[in-house]
Design a protein that fits this description.
Radius of gyration: 19 Å
CATH topology: TIM Barrel
Number of helices: 13
Keywords: Metal-binding, Methyltransferase, Transferase, Zinc
CATH architecture: Alpha-Beta Barrel
Order of helices and strands: EHHHEHHEHHEHEHEHEEEHHEH
Strand content: 5-15%
Number of domains: 1
GO molecular function, one term: metal ion binding
Oligomer: single chain
Pfam family, one: S-methyl_trans
CATH superfamily: Homocysteine-binding-like domain
Number of strands: 10
Shape: globular
Cofactor: Zn(2+)
GO biological process, one term: methylation
Length: about 350
């Protein structure tokens, strides 16, 4: 698509880290395995306030507070929640996000993406950055069944009440996020395929995480292998409308996007008409999250070496360069950990100068 016609759609930022910051000051630890989704139980109003702030700052798309939801997570949250109760709380996240959109953008404005994190995001400690899973979730079939079981919670069933149908009507997109393994990429595509015929289809994206020094998944897969897994023809597997990355340091993103583009060209016809989805984290050089202690740590030695650009400036430059190369159908851009409404608002102003 020509650069002038390539839409730029703004996503929100990191909900979990926003909730731990003022004025919300929520605390998450091993007793809250649902992470930000715990507020579906403890304080929906706080969740609504946080998500509304992203909408007010200019996000076109809000992601639901369901990134780390799972039946296991609800069962392990005191006092222990049965499957039916867990399902009801999971679906409540959609209504909260839709209300946040209405309060922040105006009724009928903006879109809602159902956030569905990798299996590793539901483990304690979380393993979406390592890709090291337990033996019960280490094959395509096992991961496909796990993802489908969770996705099925949001699908309308003929014998079910209006609440389920209303939930699905409020979902515009599906966001499969922070995927660290190539077998899980295949599993996601197969899980979405299994949902076909059960409900009106929704476009979906798959975003992976690249936490190491190399441009590879935690399981060692090269980016070309990843893109082939995302978009290559495969029986019994749906094709995502968008591919990309999230929760990856912003300094790596420009190079990764260019590798994505090279891989798309290698796919020929199968690589056309695809959207780019990028929402890097807002951490600075030397900062990293310790999944065991659940705290942010700083390597002062690594921080030495000069002034970094502002997050919004760096991300905007990546988007504009990608847009000018004319490879993508559209570009979805936002932030992950440590990106708040202020950063999204600054990015909104930069984007508006280009598209208006």
């Amino acid at each position: 698509m020509s650069p002038q016609k390539c839409p730029i759609i703004l996503l929100d930022g990191g909900l979990g880290t926003l909730l731990t910051s003022p004025p919300h000051l929520q605390t998450f630890n091993h007793s809250t395995p649902l992470w930000s989704s715990h507020l579906l139980l403890s304080s929906p109003s706080t969740l609504l306030s946080a998500q509304s702030s992203f909408a007010t700052s200019g996000a076109d798309v809000l992601l639901t507070a369901t990134y780390q939801v799972s039946f296991e997570g609800f069962a392990n949250t005191a006092p222990g929640y049965a499957a039916k109760d867990a399902e009801r709380y999971m679906r409540s996240a959609v209504g909260i996000a839709r209300q946040a959109l209405s309060e922040g953008r105006g009724k009928g404005m903006g879109k809602l993406a159902l956030s569905l994190g990798a299996y590793g995001a539901t483990m304690v400690p979380s393993s979406e950055y390592s890709g090291v899973y337990d033996s019960s979730h280490s094959s395509i079939t096992q991961l496909r069944d796990w993802h489908f079981k969770r996705l099925e919670v949001f699908l309308p069933l003929k014998e079910e009440e209006e609440e389920r149908r209303e939930c699905w009507r409020n979902v515009d997109l599906l966001a499969f996020e922070t995927v660290p393994r190539i077998d899980e990429v295949f599993a996601v595509r197969e899980a979405v395929f299994m949902s076909m015929g059960r409900a009106e289809e929704r476009p979906f994206w798959i975003s992976c995480v690249f936490p190491g020094e190399e441009n590879r998944l935690p399981d060692g897969s090269s980016l070309r292998e990843v893109v082939r897994a995302m978009l290559g023809r495969r029986e019994g597997a749906s094709r995502p409308m968008g591919v990309g990355l999230n929760c990856t340091k912003v300094g790596k993103v420009d190079g990764l996007v260019r590798e994505f583009e090279d891989a798309l060209k290698d796919l020929g016809e199968d690589g056309r008409g695809v959207s780019l989805v990028i929402y890097p984290d807002g951490t600075r050089v030397g900062e990293r999250y310790n999944t065991v202690t659940q705290r942010w740590e700083v390597d002062e030695e690594a921080r030495k070496g000069g002034q970094e650009k502002e997050w919004d400036e760096e991300v905007f430059g990546i988007v504009i360069r990608a847009r000018e190369r004319g490879v993508w159908e559209s570009i979805y851009v936002g932030g992950c950990c440590r990106v708040g409404p202020e950063e999204i608002g600054k990015l909104r102003k930069r984007v508006d100068k280009v598209i208006n």
